[in-house]
């Protein structure tokens, strides 16, 4: 019996050890399971880097549309007046209207007793009234301006647009060729004065002068004389001139450099009433560097404009007055409008204010002036 008890004790001890080992194995297995669950997932096998995905470009934003004028409720809503002496000048301006109010809705008519004829429309964000003069000259211009004020009482700017005789060179030697545009810094009434035995003496005292443009006009002119804005003015002017050339009846094509001839100031035209080709004018010509191009783009010149009832057809007198007063052009209407409205004068050079002047450049010069007028109004801020 003693041997049996020993055997049972050993068996009991062995069973106890087996159970203990199994319990330890279970604990280790559980610990390994927890460790595997806490570890992050293995990274996928590395791949060769490919090209970076291209970003889709954002769609370009269209430039905001330019504000456009709305139809005025009445004549009191017009702020810009354009004055033209000749029908061909008015035709070029009218062709650049963005909208014609005369063709859309009831007419605006005019004040009782006003003899003027008007066209109404829009240029950009401005409502514009175009006044058609019955003839040339300061007296007609003054009458048109006074009557226009009675019908359109809120005009803030009058623009005298058309053709002029140009001074071939400015005081600092800059060339002016036919088709260029002159814009007024001021207006000189050059034929206003006294005729004395020793000659004509102009009245140019402070009380006799027409005065300078108002502050708003002078500030805008100073801006447009700057390089960037002057270039923008010429660029837009070229665009508008291009559109005018598509109208056959305007005949706004460039006449050609062969027809832009500047004779020496003292050389007199051979016979009045005939062209230079018909009467064989063969005097000495003045060399022009800008005419080397086949069709030079019209330039814009700022300066004083001489206005009078006398048609300037003398190269000698032209140069004398230009030197005395620093003039860039001669015309016949702006002095009549100047005192009635805040005014700017924009004229295209159709001749050189000498005895050789002809009508061959008038339509092209009227077109360049109208194009410059529209480009100028892009910079004018409505009130």
From TrEMBL:
Origin superkingdom: Eukaryota
Pro residues biased stretches: 42-67
GO biological process: nucleoside metabolic process
Transmembrane regions: none
Stretches the record annotates as Disordered: 33-73
All copies of domain Nucleoside phosphorylase, residue ranges: 80-355
Example GO molecular function: catalytic activity
Region forming the signal peptide: none
Gene3D superfamilies, per the entry: Nucleoside phosphorylase domain
Protein name: Purine and uridine phosphorylase
Gene source species: Aspergillus sclerotiicarbonarius (strain CBS 121057 / IBT 28362)
Species classification: Eukaryota, Fungi, Dikarya, Ascomycota, Pezizomycotina
